[in-house]
């Protein structure tokens, strides 16, 4: 079992100079492109009740670049657990991983989060007249891109490797196992399309 940094470095050695130089403290022109084309980002936070890793998605560029040091992420309607938001209130440190469909490289942003309910800011993120509940403002501290090895190994974008949804338990089936046999899984699954349509924003 490895317990020290020295043990790790003996196995892995030191990072290449390029791996160090690709990390900067602001969003430059190249990194801006990844954010503007990304319809999906994973938000990681930590707080006194534990860790959270939350997917966020919308139209490409839904994460707004306010300036080179500030991002804004609309927090749309969800399940009201507020795991990420609770963590940010307690500990503002967060990490973002931007994914662009069909592209192997990803973009990582580390920084500190703030939660805003400013009326004008919320209005600027309205979709079909529906506002986000809040907006997460990210003060950027580090930005760098990851190479495409993870996507190449996983063949994530290869359509021949896509898994049929029917091979996994449905949402209703999962809820029934957790809530008991009285839960109507079939009714839940039948209503899911309409539920999604009415609750995206």
UniProtKB/TrEMBL annotation:
Highest taxon above the source species: Bacteria
NCBIfam families: PPOX_FMN_DR2398 (TIGR04025)
Pfam family, one: PNPOx_N
Signal peptide: none
Native source species: Glaciimonas soli
Domain Pyridoxamine 5'-phosphate oxidase N-terminal: 29-147
Cited SUPFAM superfamilies: FMN-binding split barrel (SSF50475)
Identification of the protein by name: Pyridoxamine 5'-phosphate oxidase family protein
Lineage, broadest ranks: Bacteria, Pseudomonadati, Pseudomonadota, Betaproteobacteria, Burkholderiales
